[in-house]
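User: Before I run my own analysis I want an independent prediction to cross-check against. Here's the chain; please return only the structure tokens and, at the end, one sentence I can use as a sanity check.
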Amino acid sequence: MAADVLQRIHPEIAKFAEAVLNNEGIGVCGELLKIVEPKSSLSFINPRIKTRSCDRFKVLVPYAGRTLKWEVIFNQMQPDFPPDFIFGPQDQEFVPNIDKMESLENWNCNNPESLVNLIKELIREYKEHQREQVEKIPRIHFEYTTLAADANYPEFEVHVLKGQQKTDSVVNFMIKLPVDLTGVPQFIIRDCPGEDIACLFVSYASLNGENVTPTLLLSPRVERAFGGTSNLRIPHWLGVNGCLLEYLPLIQELFAQKVEQVCQAFHKRREYVAAFLSAFGSSVLEYDAEGFMKLSLLFKVQGFFCIVHIELDKNFPQEAPLFYLQSIYHEKNNQPYEKLEAGYPYSPRWSGDEMAERARAFLLEKIPAFKDASLSNAKF
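Assistant: Structure tokens:
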């Protein structure tokens, strides 16, 4: 998608757009800038001639849980000149202080980072503009000033979305939580996961504090380790008299407990899988070497081969593993015949080695019965 956009932008301007797309995450959540809707200022373009004529595009800027859409306008006839900006209809009152735009005043057409630097300066000005909007709303201004004065929460953003009536306005806070995530398992994420972070998004749908909705936002790797944000039920808002500085410690305490729980469960699963690898050696067909959530073993009992699939829950060892026996000979409904075996001896207090030995004894007892069930209930 990004490559397609760049292929349409004028060669003298594309270097600035490419730097925007390759820039590291910005803002509290560390999200990436995006470019959409490239257009040309030329009044006529011959459709038969493939040319890179686009000299204006829109930059999507993540800010306080919203996406700002700023139009960047270059002039391909004068590509060395700095661009103009058009801000969205919701930001008509935003007039940045040009005197503070060093990247604009000292525009360097030879530096591909010039546009990125200018956008960052505009974001800084936009943040100041939002602070001025907050000053007009007493309740929100109280939340803002007390939060800004607390050294525990240095990174946050606030955004005022004005409605037709003042009472229709919505105010959003995005606050980066100062939590230690170094122990969270390093799951592999296909897309660039960015920094491991946790943010609290708080939306004020009423400016007197009656309708407040808090939401926890996690970076991809942390969310995967937690099994999704739904597995972390955050406390309800404290009511009309509640405030951010009373609510945030509750979230941090809950989050710290969850991090400890996730880390302990991960280490227990790894210990469990390691015990099975040690106990069964060459019988191991495959196992999850990332999250240690499952493993498969090949057993031979009384001349009968079967595969044992073991699945672990994220709450292991509190939740017992699931054992599935699968015949390599038989099928039922065009699927390999398998059976879930329950009722095996288990205690979350056992070590991984003891769990493996208990499982061995259980499987040696159950596989002959599974062989008979395969012959009776499935076809060869």
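Sanity check: The helical segments are 2-6, 11-22, 102-105, 114-134, 138-149, 220-226, 244-280, 352-377.
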